[in-house]
Model the fold of this input.
Amino acid sequence: MPNEDRDFRHALERASAWVARYLHDVADLPVLSRTRPGEIAARLPAAMPEEGEPFDALLDDFERLVLPGITHWNHPRFFAYFAITGSEPGILGELLSAALNVNAMLWRTSPAATEIEEVALRWLRQALGIPESFFGVVYDTASVSGLHALAAARESLDLDIRNLGASGRDLPALRVYCTEQTHSHVEKDAILLGIGRENVVKVPTDDAFRMDPRALERLLGEDRAAGHLPMCVTATIGTTSTTSIDPVPEIARICKGAEVWLHVDAAYAGPAAIVPELAHLMDGIEYADSLVVNPHKWMFVPVDLSVLYTPHEDLLRRAFSLVPAYLETPESDVRNYMDYGVQLGRRFRGLKLWFVLRSYGRRRLVELLRGHVAMAQALAGWIETEPNFEILAPHPLSVVCFRHVPPHLNDDSAALDAHNAALAERVNATGFAFISTTRLRGVTTLRIAIGNARTKERDVRETWELIANLAREG
Done:
């Protein structure tokens, strides 16, 4: 056996043993990295080595240099942003995909990559109650999935922007509608598509942070009267700050009447529709023109994997398909995924999704997501009974937004905001848990998001006790 083969096998065994140990012991690590800016870079060489280094040296430096700078997203007390999970089957899928190193751009460049993606997305569609007519494609993140959805919406207007472009033409301003609770990627996608932030219209929300359908209808009418061209409405199932759920059926009715593309961002909450009592999350989705679901957010698939579903496969393909001579193939009855996006290079992401769906099965996924929602409701109950704390938003899923209101700061909004921001930093500085903040109606808000597969109620309870104790200390 050649030495390099033995060395790799040894390194692979060492790395796999480290991964298993890490997943078992991750709860003992501080969640948030304590490294200061520039500290890691300062410890690295100024240039690459002239001669190659052994695998053991790489793994040694991984533990010595890299790990201190890691914030542990796989930690059961990672409660910031949206808690996610790099699960065991997902990790196996990533390992094998990296070893195969295929480019899944054409069916023939790896038939299994294309067909496993098709099958896994069909399984996921069925599990979430998405109509059979919806075609699915894997991208990396919701930002990119949303970009492709908006591009398809633009293509649906038949302005031939694909060929003629938009600049130098007498075209009306294209308008995109969302709320202040919509994820920021919609504005970024509007920038990238040449629509511009000024043409992203923020629809008012109700007391539960949901899009107001009457306000949407009014804004659509005003824009048409002003000579603008409504292109797309983005509704959200599970907004980023509060997990509010926009009234999709009513919004869909308005979009249909106005002949405007309806895009639904269910990146976070979409997977929860697998839970029978949460299947209503997908109410009205049959009327959507596109839908994003992120299995890497709340379905235990390692980052990154986002899915765009649409009943308009032809429009998505028309927006992006461009086949040069060197990519022509004789197969006519296959799907070439390069035709559905800007990227020609495509990782074999479908493998890890397929592994996760098979390893967990529907029943275990339902149990875990149901448990996360139950933990969030328990947390909300503890907050409501604690003096000087208040809930700041409805909590239908696994995120709770709240703040501490000490009596002496009750009339000083700026001081109250600073107090809660400092409280979050004090919690995070302990290393025991990691929480994040947001702003709701201009108010600094503490936010706990539950979603890691290893999180137990004890983790949530002890984190809440830490917050309450620090708040009492002042």
Notes: The domain at 357-473 is CATH 3.90.1150.170 (Aspartate Aminotransferase, domain 1). The chain has three domains: 3-30+33-70, 103-347, 357-473. The chain has a mean pLDDT of 96.
